[in-house]
Design goal:
Chains A, B: InterPro entries: DGOK (IPR007729), DGOK_C (IPR042257), DGOK_N (IPR042258). The structure is a homodimer. Chain A is an alpha/beta fold. Chain A has eleven helices and 14 strands. Chain A has two domains: about 130 residues, 2-keto-3-deoxy-galactonokinase, substrate binding domain (Nucleotidyltransferase, domain 5, 2-Layer Sandwich); about 120 residues, Nucleotidyltransferase, domain 5 (2-Layer Sandwich). In chain A, helix 3 packs across helix 11. Chain A is globular and about 65 Å long.
């Protein structure tokens, strides 16, 4: 059986965030047959809402019926298609797989993966990243015993994995602070419209990284993006690079100092260009260099689909359950 | 002579910032005869620009000619009426008084007070606050030997005074971060439009102060304004209070930890309501309670006018110089 079904579509896997949607059509084993990307995040849906997006996707890929389907991300938030509650740390892959929120889409059932919350002194939440984390553990089971997984982005996550479970995590608002400060604060207002030279850009980023890692409060350090320009120590055109360096440098400096982030090994997960910036910061600050993995969401989605028995295969292969057909 | 001129207008003193203008008509001794406030900051000038604002003020106060006039604040920036360069720390009152930038206004001469810069590892600038600081030292000469002066605001300053000079300072972007994050970030987007109860407001502010003073990076702590709401530990309506507490708490925690801020005595200078919030943070964090002074800009303006000989009186009384008549 498993040989004959190889190459056939077995799972529609969705990473449905606030501002974008990524979808993959996969075989039982997780081989990607088709890939799709759109701006139809949950806050930017076309007429017809969630259903219309799903219907368009089925049409585009000429699927007469909805195959088993699974989704992660903000689609499971209070503003999403249906609310999948947060599971409290520590969270295992099995716990996620047995807590899927089932939605009747009109075309069939969709399973939404819950988010994860950390109820520590400073409470925290993630939604979507838990699936990328499971993807890391599926791709690299050797890391599951003890690793820090860093997922840079609008709300960067530093997650601590111990014995295959997410035991705790913390968010840094690095990406959003960068966007909001360059667009709406005095720091962006006085940056120049022209692009800096490559040399200026690199120097500004590196100066930013070192400043961000000085141990002082970011609330104070940020103002140096203005005062350095006034002092002739930063070109106005390179202010965005300096800010990016400062916020990333502060995150890379602070992440390992959080209580639970004490692993020997660190993995970076995400977009190539952004991971490259983080790598430069790790190097500049003399921290052990993390291994970089690309987008691990597809690997996480098929892993949970396997564990939940939505498709056969994986460590806990189960007969096809017929959900959504 | 000094007796006969008491009560007569001798100085027009201006605190001319980015978004507002405050003006005082003073006697030789600094007694305030008239006070004026408008929204005509340097980025919000009416038709006719700086001159028109000054002319209107003379008309309003029925002054046939411009008396000796002095100004501090962003009016002396590159975007101001004329650029008064920054003086490098350490800066004495005399250095400020002998570095005034003279502007021919059309109605007579205006003297603009320079800003101050700190060329330390993390460079910093102030413009306007140096005058408030001189006002503190004029009103309270007993503090001049060694004091930390905290000036809360959009860009809060923590200035270190030693032997009557400004020896160093650091800016915290507390007010601007609060404004930008509540207006443009996810933290503000999910706050509720209704007002919280007084009890909710106080509790949220205090929780924010304690969180902001936890020693972790603000970039990470800020996200708790979102996750606490999701965890049911903060009402959406009280998010602005929590954010205010978090940013102020972080500033009050971090300020004394900056290298130069090591005085035994601390003074808070500024708006009553804002100083009250800072006082609550100092108390909550168990820090020695600072003395609160109101707006010390008028005292600073007359002090520098005295030192510069624009009006007679003060420690270095000089004959009336006739500038601007």
């Amino acid at each position: 059986m498993s040989g004959s079904s190889a190459g056939l579509p077995a799972l529609l896997a969705l990473d449905w965030g606030t501002s974008s949607l990524r979808a993959w059509l996969m075989t039982e084993s997780g081989q990607i047959l088709k890939e799709y990307r759109s701006k139809h995040g949950i806050l930017n849906l076309p007429e017809g809402g969630f259903s219309a997006v799903l219907e368009d996707l089925l049409g585009l890929w000429r699927l007469p019926i909805l195959p088993p389907a699974i989704a992660c991300g903000m689609v499971g938030s209070a503003n999403g298609w249906a609310e999948a509650p947060y599971l409290a740390c520590p969270v295992s892959p099995d716990a996620l797989a047995t807590s899927l929120k089932m939605v009747q889409t009109g075309q069939g059932m969709l399973s939404i993966i819950p988010g994860v919350r950390d109820d520590g002194m400073v409470p925290d939440v993630m939604r979507g990243e838990e699936t990328q984390i499971l993807g890391v553990l599926a791709l690299r089971p050797d890391l599951a015993e003890d690793v820090t997984i860093v997922l840079p982005g609008t709300h960067s996550k530093w997650a601590q994995i111990h014995q295959g479970r997410i035991v705790g995590f913390r968010t840094f608002m690095t990406g959003e602070l960068y966007a909001v400060l360059t667009a709406h604060s005095i720091l962006g207002r006085f940056s120049a419209p022209e692009r800096p030279s490559d040399a200026e850009s690199i120097m500004a980023f590196e100066d930013g990284v070192r400043t961000g890692a000085s141990g002082d409060s970011v609330s104070s350090l940020l103002f140096s993006a203005r005062s350095r320009v006034l002092a002739g120590r930063l070109s106005a055109a390179a202010v965005p690079d300096y800010l990016s360096g400062l916020l990333i440098g502060n995150e890379v400096y602070s992440g390992p100092r959080l209580n639970r982030a004490s692993s020997q090994r660190t993995v970076l997960v995400g977009d190539d260009a952004l991971c490259a910036r983080y790598l430069r910061a790790f190097r500049l600050l003399g921290q052990p260099e993390p291994e970089v993995l690309g987008n691990t969401a597809p690997a996480g989605l098929i892993k949970i689909a396997h564990l939940a028995g939505l498709v056969p295969g994986g460590a806990r292969s189960q007969p096809f359950s017929g959900v959504g057909a």
